Structure formats: structure tokens, C-alpha cells
Amino acid sequence: MQNVTFRAALVLLALFVLTAVFGPYLVEHDPLKGSLRARLEPPLWAGGTSEHLLGTDRLGRDMLARIVSGARISLTVCVVVIAIAGSIGTALGMLSGYVGGWLDRVLMRLVDLALSLPVILLALLVGAVSGPSFGNIVLVISLVLWSQYARMARGETLRVKNEDYVDLARTSGLGHVRIIARHILPNIAPALIVVATLQVGVVIVLEASLSFLGVGVPPPNPSWGSMVADGRSYVVTAWWVSLFPGIAILLVVMAVNIVGDALTDRINPALRGRTA
Amino acid sequence: MTLLSIRNLTVRLGRDALAPTILEEVSLDVMPGETLGLVGESGSGKSTLGMSVLRLTPPRLAEGTSGEILWDGRDILTMRGRDLRALRGAEISMILQDPMASLNPVFSIGSQLTEALRRAGRSDLMQAAEAALAEVRIPSPAERLRSYPHQMSGGMRQRVVSAIGLAQEPRLIICDEPTTALDATIQYQFLELLRALQGAHGMAMLFVTHDFGVVARICDRVAVMYAGRIVETGPVREIFSNPRHPYTRALLAAVPSTSTAPDRLPVIEGAPPSIGNRPGGCAFHPRCPMAGPDCQRQPPMERLAPRHEAACWRAREEAAA
Amino acid sequence: MNAILSTHALGRTFRTRGGPLHALSDVSIDCMPRHSLGVVGESGCGKTTLNRLILMLDTPTEGEVRFKGKPLRMLSVAERRAYRRAVQPVFQNPYSSLNPRLRVRRIIREPLAANTDLSGPQIDARVDEVLEAVGLTARDANRLPAEFSGGQRQRIAIARALASKPELMLLDEPVSSQDISIRAQILNVLTELRDEYGLATLFVSHDLATVRFMCDEVVVIYLGRIVEHGPANLICTAPRHPYTQALLAATLPADPDAPAMAVPPEGEIPSPLAPPPGCAYHTRCPFAREICRSVRPRAEADEAGGAVACHMVNQGGW
């Protein structure tokens, strides 16, 4: 049973990635261009036409095309944020655990600070000052999420640092950089990959929330979050405008979390529940 | 007359009849008041055997358990919740390698000990607890009652575990490598203590260990295990002076001693097989210097002397030079 | 003959919240070429600290370690490389001493690549050679540690140490985590290699029986100080310090008719945070007198080439 869920989640996740990468080439409509004559058309099974399978939004843009290209935006934000937050967080966390002492104390207070940042307020602030932009959203999310990598990397580094092979490398006169690259990083990587997997869901939800609030990916780019926001005023009359991107968010985040949990169990059961 | 009688105990990794076996057809008797040593290397199944007696094996192993473990003529393997709880602690108790696994870190020694004494129906709890600590030779027992497990050394904790284990006057104590984590001088003291406690309370002990020195010091009888089976059993003196199974012989010869310094230690080639990779027939045959074609078949347990048995086709032959 | 490695009044005091912890005090030992020295003691006696000081994983607070007469801290860069080649450790737990992510070849290469000027092919040839020397095969070089049993892993760890053609192997409880049948195999491999390559060994252990098998000479440590040293056969048959006597009697022989200890040691090993004054063993010693409680006994050499730090022995008190 658990295996079935895991496989279904894996298939869904693969579908999401494939859609994000190849989808925009396959749909016929332009996600940014609509025709006001075809505005708020319902999906095919609710009285619509086969022209717009999932209906259209208030500007007559094809919902299917917008969801498909929204997937690409979500994935891009995920990849960029996780690359930035992951590399900065891992580097600082390893440094903190490896060097110890006052550097460790300073860095860990910084982590506490990052964890206490109210993401949404911060994003609203940045948005208010410089307007919504792709760069801002990546910056704000990374600013908060690096700390989780730092924590995990520090804890794992402390564990691995005590292994005898690290002492052996030191007695062979290896430098710190080579010890970290050869002995520490490869052994803490599995735990960090788990954090990254679990964060995909967090990033998608954050991006969607910020876009919903209008400080995320700027219009007319079709972010799932801003699409849900767009449909807010038509929920009763044109439910599909909000519902479909909402379902997309739900499915992808659920799939990511199921896969992430399974990975955690497989790689390191002791870590379960330690990541947000 | 037998206190505990294990009959054809087989433990598999799960219900499936083809699942790898941890214990195969183990039969063993423990008499009242005796100390039976269970010796073997890692993967021999000795700890699983100890755990099975109290039905403390993980669920997957419990599912794959068959045979009988008779206690007072009743099969422990078919006992239900209440009977099983009445058995644990009151009739049979346990001392594990890591005393912290048996002690609760958030309660004081006194409260853990008085709880066990209350179950034993004692009313003068504090005096009884103090006496119990004194009996396991813990210095200044009255003060120690207020200590927490982490404030004590490994040797002292192991004494507390024994005091708790003895509180309900069990008839059998299963000791699973209780001295492996202790230093030599502390181990010596603890073994002396166990002998003294046995003299005073008359309980039997099933002593799981890998150390022949410990066996020689404390056991009356010994069962040697290899790859999930008992390969030889007999009185300690008999096993040490006249081992008949080639594995027992080789193992005894491989232990270094303080009294001689040979150039080489006699060795058993290879490593003990892991669970799931055990060879067919006599599991020891790939490593055995005496192995022949007949060792492809599992040898039965054969009686060599009134209380000495071995499972080997060559048990009556002398070892090749 | 000159010692490969020697320690001179070596000491290490850690500053802790509970006050100074004297992990090791006034330890002087010599590791002579082709000689095997054993260091015996129970947990907390300072064995690990001694190892770490010798391996430059820690620095002494008193005294010094010398390599061929020169203090470690005075070694030039080239001498330091030579020292790292000459002194090679094997640790207790082969599950911790082999990086699970590296193939055996890379594990054994590490000290060669760091401290020798061998070329790539020369290193590869050396890896194959040492694997065969410890009873494995050249093919094993391409496997990961997880594919080996505990005994085989310890052989890999020994091969790694052997690769740099050391003069001294520092063996830190190399068999205590192994099964009995494997233990004998590893001990034989170690003695064979020692004899074949003319190595000196410093064998650290809690077990007098393995020390008797492995060593010519033994140093017994209690609470960070040497209490007795002497030839292995004497230490293991006629120990003179009461602590060595207790340790020997507690080393249970596989013989049910062995005599019980005449006087077992009392009590626990005291905390190194508050070592007893005078002779540190007096709290457990059945022979302790007034002088033992106040005056620390000095080690006095005897005619057998050993030395004992005990008032009662040295004054012929019993």
C-alpha cells in the first residue's frame, strides 16, 4: 500500500517536471494572450468547448496553457531557490560544525535569526519597495530557507567529524579543504538531499502565497498563486479559474512530501520529522 | 524438574517459510538454580534466543517463531497478555548489556526500585529498597536512592539493574552480555556479585556471552552456538577440557592467554556466515578442518557422555594434527 | 639504538567545567626499532589521549613527543611528512575508520598521495601489494567498505597503514570489536607483518592476554600515570604493582579451574577530575598504608629491566 502511494507520487512528480520542461511546446494557446470574446469560458465537461479544455480566465486566456506554463515557473523558482539556499546553507553549516568555537556560535545565532524572519511580511516589504519581481521572490525565500540546510549540515558535520576516518585523514596531513571535500561533504550529502526534497513543497507553497498576495512573480506571468488570486472574485460563477491551479499546487506539494518522507526513511530514518 | 525447556525453537525473519532463519531447531533445558552459558559469535542467534524466552523479539521475528518454550509445563509462546506480564519480572527477569536500556533516565534509582518492590507486594518500600541496594553492594545505599542513572558509573548501573531484576525474586534471570561494556576489574566484581546473589536467592541464570573467560568463571553448563544452532552442550569442565565439536575446539584454541605467548594463534579460517547466507548441511563445514562429504547433511545432536552432546559427524574422532 | 618515537614526561590536562582533568601525566615511553611495546589500562586511563598526542591530533600541555630525538613541534615540513609516513595508526572500529563513500583503492591511496612522491601507477601497484599482504586481493581495491565483513575491514585498515612503509604501527585496540575467531586472524596478520617488514609496534589495549601475545614489553597505566612497566612475560606472570595484579586476575582465563583472585580490587575507578592524592590506586588497593595516601610513589627500576611505582613494592613492605 505504502509502495503504491510512493509510486503514484513519483509518477505525479515526474509528470510535473516533464510538463514544466516540455509542456509549453505542446499546448497550442499562448498563456499570455487571450481574447475577450472568449472570457470565462467553462471547461469542456461543464458546457465549454474543446478549444479550451479547462476553460478560460477573465481575460480569455487558456487555463490549460497557463497551468502548464505555471508549472515551469514553479519549478524554476524551486531550482533556483534550492540551489542558492542549499549551497549557502550547506557551506555555512559545514563551516560552523567543522570549525566550531565562536564562529559556530555566531553562525547559529544567524540561523536563529533567519528562522524567525516572517517571510510574508518581508516579501510584502520588499515588494512594496521595489515591486514584484522574480529576483525578489527568489531572494526572500532563499533568505529564510538557507538556515535549514545550515542546521542539518552543521549537525551532520559534527557527527561525521567524529568518525575515525576524519582523524586518519588528519594524521595523513590532509588539509581542511580536502578533508571537507573528500570525507565530510559526501557523507552529509544524503541528509541534505532529503532537506532539499522536502523543501520543494515549501518553496512551491511560498511562491504561490507570495504571488497570490501580489508580491511574487509579476503579472502577466502565470504563477499558480496569482492564478488562484485572479479567480477569487469569480469563485461562485467561474470556479475553474481558482480551482485548477489550486489542485495543481495541492497535487504537486503532496507528491513531493510523500517522496521526501520516503527518501528520509530510506536514507536516514533518524532524521524523520526533523525538517520542516 | 526442568525449569525452562526450549523445544525445537525456530525463529525466522517473518512468517514466510522460506524466510532466512535466525534460530534453527534449538532445544535446551535450564535446571533450577543452575547457570547456563550461551556462547557464540555475532550472528549466531544467542541474543535472539535470550529475547525469545521473554517474547521480547521484534514483531517480524515473533511472527516467524515456532516450537515450544515450556515454563512450568506451560508454553510461553502461546501465553496471552496478562500471563505474559505476570511472567516478566516476577518469574523471569533480564539484565542487558546496556544498563541504560533498562533504566528510565528521568526517574531516580529509588523510584524505579520501589516500583519493582511494590509489584512484588512489599510494603516497607524505602527500607526494602535500601536493603536491595546494599545487597548489590552499592556504597551508601540510602543516598544512592536519590541518584539518577546518569549520575552513576556503568558498573553501578548494572548493579541497580540487578537489584531491580531481583526485587520480585524471579526463578530465572536472563543475562545478555551484562559485562561486555565493563572494564576488566569492574566485570570481575560484577561476576562475583552475581555468584553471591545466586547463592543467596537460588535463581537460575541464562548467561549470553561471547567470552569464554566469563563462561569459565560463572557457568555450570554451557551451550555453544553457531549459525543459529546449538552445536555442543555440556558441563563447563567437560567442554573446556574435552571439546568435541571442531568449532568449540577451534574457538577455545583461538583465545589468547596471559600464561603463554605462542608465535601464532590457531585460527578458524573465514568468517561466521551472516543470516541468510548460511551454508547447507552442517553450517560450519566450509570452515571446518575435519569436514568431509557427509558434512553436507545436518548432523543430529548426539549424546557423547551423560550430559555432553554435540552435533557433528566427527565428534568421536580426534582432531587432525 | 635510537628510539623511533619517544615520549618525555608527557602530560595532557583538559580544562573542563569541573576543573582541570589530568588525562595523562608524566608518561615516558620509548618505541625502539623492531620492538613491540604494549600499553595497558582500563577506560579513562589516558590510552586514547596518548594516541592522539602521538598522532598530532592533540598537543601536550606538559612534556613532549619526539620523533628520532626531535620534538614533534620542531619538525620541518619535510620531517613532518617523514613522520607521517613512519608512524601509522590502526584504530579500533573499522566501521568508523573507513569512509563508506570511498572505494578501497582511494582509502589506501590517501596517505601515499599525501606523504610520498610516488607516481599514480606506483601508488596503484603499492595498493595491490598491501592488499595481498593482508590476505585480500587486488580486485578488492575497487569495492566499497560496505561489501566487507568487520574482519576484512580491519584488514583494509591495516593495509592502509602498511602502504606508506611505516617504521612504527600504532595499534589502538585493533581487535577488541572483533569476534573471537576473527580476532585470532587479525592478531596473526599483525604479527606476521611485523616480523616480515621489521616493524615496531605500539599496541594499546585493555586486555592483558592479547598484549602478552603481541608485545615484548608492557606499560601499565592507571588514571593517566604509569604504575608499572616491564617485560611482557613478567607483567603477565609475576606482576608486582597491586593494580597490575588485579588486572591480571580480572583477565579471566578460559579455564574453569583457574584460581580466583586472592584479593579483588575494591570500589570503582576514581574520576580523573578528582584523582586521589598520593598513590592514585590507594582507594582500591588492599595493601594501602598511610604513606600511600599522601606521597606519590616514584617509579623505581628493578634488576629485571622493569619499574614499579609502589611504596610497598619498593620498600619491600609486603
What structural category do the secondary elements of chain A indicate?
mainly alpha
| Rg over CA atoms of chain C | 21 Å
CATH topology of chain C: Rossmann fold
CATH superfamily of chain A: MetI-like
The chain pair forming the largest interface, with residue counts per chain, is:
B-C, 47 and 46 residues
> How many separate structural domains of chain C?
1
Helix content of chain C: 25-40%
Number of helices of chain C: 11
User: What is the number of independent domains of chain A?
Assistant: 1
End-to-end separation of chain A in angstroms reads: 25 Å
Give start-end ranges of low-pLDDT stretches of chain A. 269-276
Q: Mean pLDDT score of chain C, rounded? A: 91
User: What is the CATH top level name of chain A?
Assistant: Mainly Alpha
Unreliable stretches of chain C, pLDDT < 50, 5 or more residues? Answer: none
Query: CATH first level of chain C: which class?
Result: Alpha Beta
Largest sheet of chain A: none
Describe the overall structure:
The complex is a heterotrimer of chains A (276), B (321) and C (318). Residues 269-276 of chain A have low confidence and may be disordered. Helix content of chain A is 72%, strand content 0%. With 276 residues, chain A is mostly helical. Chain B has one domain: Rossmann fold. In chain B, the strands form two sheets. Chain B has an eight-stranded mixed sheet, sandwiched between helices. In chain B, strand 11 and strand 12 form a beta hairpin. In chain B, helix 4 packs across helix 5 (125-135) and helix 4 packs parallel to helix 7. The longest helix of chain B is centred in the middle third of the chain and has 18 residues, at 184-201. Chain C has an eight-stranded mixed sheet with strand order 6-7-8-3-9-10-12-11, with helices on both faces. With 318 residues, chain C is of the alpha/beta class. The mean pLDDT of chain C is 91. Chains B and C meet through helix 8, helix 9, helix 10 and helix 11 of B and helix 5, helix 6, helix 7, helix 8 and helix 9 of C.
